[in-house]
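The data are quoted verbatim for completeness:
=====
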Amino acid sequence: MINVGVIGYGYWGPNLVRNLFEVAETQVVAVSDMRQDRLEQVKNRYPSVEVTTDFRQLLSNPKIDAIAIATPVHTHYDLALQALQSGKHVMVEKPMTSSSEQALRLIEEAARRNLTLLVDHTFVYTGAVRKIKAIADSGQLGDILYYDSTRINLGLFQRDVDVIWDLAVHDLAIIDYILPSAPCAVAATGINHVFGGTENLAYITMFFEENLIAHVNVNWLSPVKVRRTLLGGSKQMIVYDDMEPSEKVKVYDKGITVNGSSDSLYKALVGYRSGDMFAPQLDVSEALKVEIQHFAECIRTGVEPITGGQAGLRVVRILESASLSMKQRGKLVHLAPERLRLSQGAA
């Protein structure tokens, strides 16, 4: 049994605590939050759990093996570092940190102390994304040509991060998990419509060494909520619609064939292939529960998590590059070669 302390009981904390209780391998010992009314909610629902406004009591508690952090992004680094230095395994909400330098420091600290560090990239653990990964790895899609995602809704406006760091981080984690390589350059544009706020609408384009491109549209000012991703391959294509109650993943046997000379477009004959569509059966287990089970298994075995520190670092580096490009009105930002080598080596 892995005893866990949870820091933060705001938006995501209640989901963490509920799933930690449901997973047989874990149990919640204590919850910390700065607001007393939230701690009252914990006591009412989970009478056996200790509550405190001082997170340091969780770090010094010898009964606690691991810390789950569900707090604003700007607090992730300090809390995770202190938890690791206290000898606790760490599960930290996305994005991992506010900078790649901070992410590297956490990776080094976890490695030095032989502790598990997992980043809560929840979508990676959904049945839909895991199925897409299996289909892509099988070669069924052929060569992957593009990833195109729309992730928009009305709110929730965040105080400490822009829409890229809030919403696009999901797609960047999925891209890191599914695509065969890391992007070599990023371009992003965005705009803020709220005085004193951050960008609430953005478009991100990622370029790869091979003939592959990824595009993500994120928006806090949409009248409708859309969560739709297209993954195009040379043989087959996938539509992933997370808003669908069933059949979230659909595989289309559609595409093109080009016959003739590659020297001239006029000599080339483009044929269109339109075959069947099928919707594979998906694991309907709650993603967060699957992730916590994986976290517990990694603690027991010492295996690097699927969304470990290196995965979190790769995502943060793309977020940094996108933010830099957005501030320069879409100027292309190249990922440094040494960073690219690290990303590919750790994938």
